[in-house]
Each structure stands twice: as structure tokens, then as C-alpha cells.
Specification:
The chain is about 55% helix and about 5% strand. The chain is an all-alpha fold and about 350 residues long. A 3-stranded antiparallel β-sheet has the order 1-3-2. Helix 9 runs antiparallel to helix 10 and helix 13 packs across helix 14. The longest helix is centred in the N-terminal third of the chain and has 21 residues. The N terminus is likely disordered.
């Protein structure tokens, strides 16, 4: 692979090395997303290099098995532009395929010690997809979608991308630093890291908005928090979505103490608007889930009745998230965020 001071540069011209394609086809390990229509043969325009777990004593790939940076970027765009749109397969299966192939992309980038703009381009697009997928699959059972593995991959991508940002300036750094803070909402270490960023980055509109959301959450200013949340674009709201359930839980706890009175009733329509819930009916169900009484289209807040429902489910949200997506293909949404 070259001298001790040289980094290997892959020479594989396609999304998958020919040797792997032949081997997986012979072993029957090609995914159905990689097959020619109506056959069990691999389609070279669809087969994508799969992730291979590192192991002690395992030989390093040869140069012809590594994809150079332009091929890696083309692979990512293929996955996010064509594979992600496959509506004929279960969404969790499509995601499992894309997630594995994106790990293989990052593995090739690691082996070649990719740095600078080529590496940033891969990581920003991977993060855009992973944030989108985390929202879209939030209601899937763990057997189909592992949220812990997904979280680990997201944090690893954020960590790697933010290391790249420290070495050189990149146009989209403020936007992705903001996504990092929103995804890690309320975590002191994430806030500390963001506050150490250079002044021009910290003063950007994206990061100022993310900081405002974070402060509103920490101050338990729920009216401001949900108002700011509703104004966020698609990818930032996807980053923040995992905190939606806990935020609503804390808001109802705050109201149960602040408005606790036997004859005090709060209209569900007003509360649903305040907490950005899709409908008064969904708001009523959320209140009942927390032990609160719902009567004649209103909730009765009593601190003695409030209960912790335990595990909070992160459901889909038409108002907060789906309405921000628009009709544009996902690849276009992510490319806009990266350019």
C-alpha cells in the first residue's frame, strides 16, 4: 500500500469490488436490492460493497478493493437517491441495507485516511440520512430497527465530522454543529463543546437558533421551546425529535404543579397548540397516559394525579416534522443541507 508515510488510495472504479460481487453471488449473499430483475444474479450497477467487521489477523484490503473518494461519494448519492425510494420493500429492510453500506463507505474512508473536503462530504450526507431515518423508523420494533446501534452510528459520525471541522473551514459547519447540539439537547458536555467553537461559527443563525432551543429546554420555558421547535426546518427537527416525548412529559409535569386546582381546566385545543401535538384527541391520550383527568375537551391538572408513564414512545408528527419535508426527494433535501 505504499511507504510508511503514504496513505493508500483505492483504485476500485465501482460501488463494489468485482471479487466481492462474484463471491457473494456464488454464496447466495446478495441482497435483493442488488439483483437483476427476476434473477438471482448480481447487477453491477446495484451491488454495493458490504461492511466487513475488522478482526485480528485479518489482511488489509488491496488497493483494487478500496473505493477512492469520488466513487465513495457517488455510492452515497446512489444509496440516498435511488435505494431510499424503494417503496416496494419494508422501510426497515431498506434502511438496514443503506446503513450497512454507509458503514462500508466510512470503513473505506478510514482505511484511506480520508481528510478535508472529501471526508466532510461523505460524513455530512451520511448524517443527513441517519437523522432522517431515525425519525422515519422511530415506531419500528427493536427487532427491525435497533435505536441503540443507530444512536452509536450517529454519534460516531458527529465526532468524526467535528474533528474534520477543527482542521479546516467548511461552509456547512454551522449547520451541522447546530444539528449536533439539537441531537444532544440538554447534555452539558455537548453544550460545553459548542460554546468553545470559534466566534464566527457560534454567531451563525443556525447555531444561535440551536442554542436558543437548548436554553429554553434547560430553563423549562415550554412556550418558547415549542415555538422555536415549530420553526425548525426538516433535518434540525429530525435531530430534535427524539427529545420530543421527554419534553412534553416535563411540560405536563410543570403544568400539573403550576396549575394544580380542582376547578381549573385547561382546554385541550390550547394545550395541543402549545405542545405542538397533532390533534386534541392525541393530546387527550397523552394526558391520560400521565394519569391526568380529561373532561369535556379539557384537562384537569392535579399534581397528586400525575404519574410517570415510564418508557416514552417517540411517535411520528405531521405538524412538527412531516409537514417540513415537502415533495422534494430525500437526496435533494440532504444535498441542499450540504451545499
Amino acid at each position: 500500500m505504499g511507504g510508511a508515510d503514504e496513505f493508500p488510495v483505492g483504485t476500485c472504479p465501482g460501488m463494489c469490488p468485482l471479487g466481492e460481487l462474484v463471491q457473494r453471488e456464488r454464496q447466495g449473499r446478495l441482497h435483493r436490492l442488488e439483483l437483476r430483475e427476476g434473477t438471482r444474479q448480481g447487477d453491477p450497477t446495484r451491488v454495493v460493497k458490504e461492511y466487513s467487521r475488522p478482526a485480528a489477523g485479518k489482511e488489509l484490503p488491496r488497493l483494487q478493493e478500496l473505493r477512492p473518494a469520488p466513487v465513495l461519494l457517488a455510492t452515497v448519492r446512489y444509496l440516498l437517491g435511488q435505494v431510499v425510494q424503494r417503496a416496494d420493500l419494508p422501510p426497515a429492510e431498506v434502511h438496514a441495507f443503506i446503513s450497512d453500506r454507509l458503514r462500508a463507505v466510512r470503513q473505506d474512508a478510514t482505511l484511506q485516511r480520508l481528510q478535508g473536503a472529501p471526508c466532510v462530504a461523505l460524513l455530512e450526507r451520511s448524517l443527513g440520512y441517519l437523522l432522517h431515518a431515525g425519525y422515519q423508523l422511530c415506531q419500528e420494533p427493536p427487532a427491525r430497527f435497533d435505536p441503540h446501534l443507530h444512536h452509536t452510528q450517529l454519534q460516531e459520525c458527529f465526532s468524526w465530522l467535528r474533528r474534520c471541522y477543527r482542521n479546516s473551514c467548511h461552509d456547512r459547519e454551522p449547520a451541522f454543529q447546530a444539528l449536533f447540539l439539537l441531537y444532544n439537547l440538554g447534555f452539558p458536555e455537548a453544550l460545553h463543546q459548542v460554546l468553545q467553537l470559534p466566534d464566527p461559527v457560534r454567531a451563525s443563525p443556525e447555531l444561535r437558533t440551536a442554542l436558543a432551543v437548548n436554553w429554553a429546554y434547560l430553563e423549562r420555558n415550554w412556550a418558547r421551546f415549542f415555538r422555536l421547535m415549530q420553526a425548525l426546518p426538516y433535518l434540525p427537527i429530525c435531530a430534535l425529535h427524539r427529545h420530543l416525548g421527554p419534553a412534553r412529559h416535563l411540560a405536563l409535569l410543570t403544568f400539573s404543579h403550576g396549575f394544580s386546582a380542582r376547578n381549573c381546566r385547561c382546554p385541550l385545543t390550547w394545550l395541543a397548540r402549545l405542545l405542538a401535538v397533532d390533534s386534541p384527541e392525541e393530546m387527550a391520550e397523552l394526558c391520560r397516559h400521565h394519569g391526568l383527568t380529561v373532561l369535556d375537551g379539557a384537562v384537569v391538572f392535579q399534581k397528586t394525579a400525575f404519574r410517570d408513564p415510564g418508557m416514552l414512545v417517540h411517535g411520528l408528527s405531521q405538524l412538527l416534522v412531516d409537514s417540513k419535508r415537502g415533495e422534494a426527494p430525500l437526496l435533494e433535501v440532504i444535498e441542499d443541507a450540504c451545499s
